[in-house]
Amino acid sequence: xxxxxxxxxxxxxxxxxxxxxxxxxxxxxxxxxxxxxxxxxxxxxxxxxxxxxxxxxxxxxxxxxxxxxxxxxxxxxxxxxxxxxxxxxxxxxxxxxxxxxxxxxxxxxxxxxxxxxxxxxxxxxxxxxxxxxxxxxxxxxxxxxxxxxxxxxxxxxxxxxxxxxxxxxxxxxxxxxx
Length: 178
What we know:
Strand content: 25-35%
CATH topology: Pyruvate-ferredoxin Oxidoreductase, domain 3
Order of helices and strands: EHEEEHEHEHHHH
Number of helices: 7
CATH superfamily: Pyruvate-ferredoxin oxidoreductase, PFOR, domain III
Mean pLDDT: 93
Oligomer: single chain
Number of domains: 1
Low-confidence stretches: none
Helix content: 40-55%
CATH architecture: 3-Layer(aba) Sandwich
Largest sheet: 6 strands, mixed
């Protein structure tokens, strides 16, 4: 069995649930038995400014806490995509909202870039804030490290009951979208 060590960067605009997505992802990975480091950063303008969650995951102790390049990049907004696409390592996976991908185009040929209709699905579900969970569901489908059921467990354990159902549906829809 090969060892697991990944840097996952979730990016978007303040108010899109980027920090929450990082927290749920970290919780799910921790539940799977991985070592996890979680960091977050957002601009002084917060809601409306760029923000990111950084999740480092490994099946052994994490000694190097420098997050310089990502193995996986999730992007919910065009400004965040433009800001962080250069951080993705060659050969990495980039999951980006389909509308953002249409605007940005394929800017790199050395990565696997996939559009996910996150905003479209979230609007159909009735709440644009769950686009973050749609992207996490898509990640669970494309990743051997991230597990859909553990993401759902993290939602059930950490989210207020009134928001659980729509977020669980968003995870399922994201998983089925890729």
